[in-house]
Amino acid sequence: MFALEVQDVTRRSVLDCPGGPSSFAAIASAWGGSVTAVDPFYTRSVSALDAECAAAVDRTVAQLTENPGLFVWDLYEDVETCGRYLRAAYERFLADYARHPGRYVAAALPDLPFASDSFALVLSANFLFLYDDRLDRDSHVAALRELARVAREEVRVFTLASLDRERSAYVDPVVDRLRADGLTVEFRDVPYEFQPGATEMLVVSDCTRTT
Ligand SMILES: C[S@@+](CC[C@H](N)C(=O)[O-])C[C@H]1O[C@@H](n2cnc3c(N)ncnc32)[C@H](O)[C@@H]1O
Description:
single chain; alpha/beta; 7 strands; globular; binds S-adenosylmethionine
């Protein structure tokens, strides 16, 4: 979903925000990368997260089973396989969270506990623009300014589609505000597609200009 090559995450320091129950930090670290993941739910114990992630996967699988035709199955093949991917991801995350707690920082946008320019590359998946029924335009701008503040090179954001599977109405107004700040913002195609047509990521660069 971020069109990354292995060397993109092994040669540069990376922040994954929000990391949630994904296995990205565990896997990229196993490859030799320097990855920090942030999520407000990293205050919780392994057993509490285990129960929560299991319930979340069950809910997702139930929702996908109701409407499989709304999604693209090229990668996951079918709902059952997708459920297996999601379970394997959160189990890998939980094992890493237990073993390397320092990699996982409990914090929430728009306030990250890092100095400016702390990470070369900042990734943000499946939070901004997805929940545009809960986050307003100013919250998106504040979150993206904060991600750009801690990034030295670039911020990549995916998805740009909200839960109703349409491109979020906040994308263009938020991009206008970031460009007015002096940031460079572009859209790039990615090979991943799960929500039909949602194959674009947002790339914010020249991040040090505003810090
Ligand atoms: C759908 S998950 C995405 C996680 C991961 N990026 C992925 O794609 O699997 C959304 C995450 O956003 C986190 N979250 C909620 N409010 C947040 C905030 N203000 N700042 C950062 N993360 C937040 C939630 O705890 C949840 O883990």
